[in-house]
Each structure stands twice: as structure tokens, then as C-alpha cells.
Amino acid sequence: MIKQKCVWYISKYANIAKYGAETRQAAFCKEFSKKGYNVKLITSNSSHLYSTLPKIKGCYFLDKSEKFDVIWVNTPQYKKTTSLKRIIGWVWFEFFVISLPLLKKHQKPDVVIASSLSLMSVFSGCFFKLFYKSKFIFEVRDIWPQSLIDLKVISVRNPLIFILAFIERLGYKYADKVVGTMPGLSIHVEKIIGKNNKVNFIPQGVSLDFYENNQQTIDKNYIDKYIPKGKFLVTYAGTMGVANVLEPILSAAKILDSKDNNIHFLFVGNGREEGSLRAQAETLTNVTFAPRVDKEKIQSILIKSNILIASVKNEKVYEFGISLNKFIDYMFAKKPIICMYSGFPSMINEANCGEFTQSENPIAFADKILEYAKMPDRELQKLGENGYEFLIKKRNFHVLSEQYIELFHD
Fold first, then answer.
1. What integer pLDDT is reported at residue 1 of this predicted model?
2. Alpha-carbon distance 14 to 261, whole Å?
3. First-residue to last-residue Cα distance in the chain
4. How far is Cα 181 from Cα 188, in angstroms, rounded to an integer?
5. Domain count of the chain?
6. d(CA 198, CA 196)
């Protein structure tokens, strides 16, 4: 009997559906297991992203999800994303990941995917490659430390930046393959280590099971209270944070408030910038803020919109592309998308389902929204359908997993 190849997918911030979300890593693990691999997702029960993760006594908790194992590593809890406890948790997590093969019940991995964040998982990937001859795939979902520098999260002179830069270089140099969710990662890798032939673009994907079988309808009272009737509705759904740079959208709303009283902006979500944004919008009659809703319910809001919007800061790190999760939600809703973004273009242009306008340029953004508001309904509908078809055919996890599996044997 031929032994199944064993795949370990290491990611400190992964999650599974029963604890609040099926993340990218879990979706791929499900697909790998369907194709006959012995799959283990190794993650942590400490995260600022989810509040319902399992409480553990001891070092590990072995769980099941679909046809793959989930190993939860018990790591220190923290509240602030900038806290020292979070950094300690990164090191703690990797120590116990590296210790796992010492337990005889765990088959040694043939393939190890170390997915950032945290960057510390590069050490686990290098360890398994060196001592167990595992194939090491370094997955980059956020370019650290460049993102921290560009978004002014931390000073370029902070010692942590030098440590993270060293780990990043180590990952690019010693990984057998590098996978990026952004299309231009190879440009960045070439700048760091001088070659990019090991870089592969495997973007964010869509779990069709979730969108087709787990959708819920938002309460009617929510619709009545927050969604205006008879308006051309322009909706942003997601986090209201610094990286999302929503102030230019409000500036565009201000421009259109005097030009077209039928265009209305809806912001759905929350975040640290919410209070400031609400204050800036107090005098605007064409802006509504609505509370965050569960991912299972967001489609029932998006489908009531005419166009969907997003915004990304004009920073160096975005020269290499973006693969926003919200684009998945937006495309599935079959609505046109307009995004303020000046970096490496992908998804929207590939699908022909909307347009990019210059980042942090509210005038160009307002003009484009006005242009779309004047389009016939059939043209808007066609753009939305383009995005949906692109998503289903080229961005579902079944298709993307086949690309990933090719790397296991390459």
C-alpha cells in the first residue's frame, strides 16, 4: 500500500468554520484532502482576528474539520496587535510546531507550507526542510516588513524591522517555492534575493460551498433603518482602518452631494477610523454608516447596491499587487466594482467587472461613480456578471488547489 503524502499547512492566524471563519488555509486543506493527501492544518488559539477560538489545557488540541486534522497550539493570549505578548506568541507558536514531530503519532511532513503571517513560520519551514527533507513552500499573504514601514505602523529604524527583514530574506532564499497572493510578488523577491524563478501567483479564492450553502438574510429592520430606498447605492463593506484610506471616498461623496442627489454612499463595518469618518460625514446628506454584519449576511446587503467600492493607500508595498478578500464578496454579488488603487492591477481588470481609479484622488473617483450612475442597467448588470463568472471559473479553491498541488511535485 502506497503511503499518502503528508502536507502540513502552518499558519498562526488560520481558522476553521466552526470557530468563526473558514480561512484560505482551511479551504486549501479541504481540497488537498479530497485529492488524497494526509493534511494537517497547524494554527494557534490566540488571535486578534477571532474571539471564539478553542480554550486549551496543555500544549496542543487535536481537532477535526472535514477530512483533515487541525492542530491547535496553545499560545499566550493578547489584546493589542502591537503588544509584546503578540510577538512572544509568534516565537512560542513556532517552538511547539517544531516540537510536533517528536510525538510519534504524527507522520512526518513531505510538504510544509509556512504561511505568513507570522513571518516566524519561516523557521519552521526551514527546520522541516533541513531535518526531514520536506519540501518547503513559503506563502506570502502580506509583505512584511515593507507593509509595516509603508503604513507607518513601526519606524524603519526599529530593531524589529531588521529582524523581520532577515526572516523574510531567509524565507525567499531557502524555500523550494514561494507562493504570493499578490501578482507582482516576483518583482519584490527579485529585489531582495536577486532571482524570482521560484515565485508563483496563487491569489485569494472563493469557497463556493460557503457562498452557496451558508448564506443568511439580514434582518428587515436593518434594511429599513440603514438602506435608503430609490437611490443609486454605492456601498463599501469592510474594515474602517488606516490601510483602507476611506477619507478620499468621503471627499468624493462631498463632491457628489452637490452634483447628484440620487447617489448615496453606504459604509458597512467598523474599525478604529470609524469615529473620525462619522465626524467628517456629519454635514453630508448622501452618506449612511451601518453596523458590521456577519459574513454570512453581507451578500443580502451587497445585492441591494448598484456599485461596490474599495480604496487602498498609495504606498510602495502595493506596487506588487493586492488580492483583497472583499473583492471575492463583491464579485459574488454580481455588482460592478470601482476601487481607488494605483498599484499592480489584478482581478477587476482581469474580470472586466469595473475599474481602478487613481489612489487617494477623490475627484477622479467621483467622476467615475457619476459615469457609472448614468450607465444603462443592462451595462451595469453585464459588468457584475463578468466578475461573477471570473470568480467561479478562475478563483474557486478547487481550481487554485490544482495549481498548488503542482508545486508539491515540481
1. 39
2. 44
3. 24
4. 13
5. 2
6. 5
- Spell out the residues 6+ positions from residue 9 whose beta carbon is closer than 8 angstroms to its own: 25, 28, 29, 32, 39, 40, 41, 42, 113, 115
C-alpha cell at 112: 510544509
- Beta strands at 354-357 and 337-340: parallel, antiparallel or unpaired: parallel
102 in the same domain as 232:
no
179 and 192 co-located in one domain: yes
Q: Quickly count: other Cβ atoms within 10 Å of residue 11's Cβ.
A: 24
Residues 242 and 326 reside in one and the same domain: yes
Q: With 80 as the cut, is the pLDDT of residue 282 above it?
A: yes
Range of 373's domain? 210-394
Q: Give the pLDDT of residue 105.
A: 75
pTM of the predicted structure, to 2 decimals: 0.86
Grid cell 467628517 is found at 280
User: Going by C-beta distance under 8 Å and a sequence separation of 6 or more, which residues neighbour residue 260?
Assistant: 232, 370, 373
274-to-24, 159, 318 alpha-carbon distances in Å: 27, 31, 23
Contact 346, 321 (CB under 8 A): yes
- Mean pLDDT (whole number) for 356-385: 96
Judge whether residue 91 has pLDDT over 90. yes
Which amino acid, one-letter code, is at 146? Q
Q: How far apart are CA 44 and CA 15, in angstroms?
A: 9
- Residue 124 CA: distances (Å) to CA of 85, 174, 178, 249, 370: 20, 12, 15, 42, 51
* SS3 call for 43: strand
Alpha helix (H) residue ranges in 238-324: 247-257, 274-280, 299-302
- CA 135 distance to own-chain centroid: 25
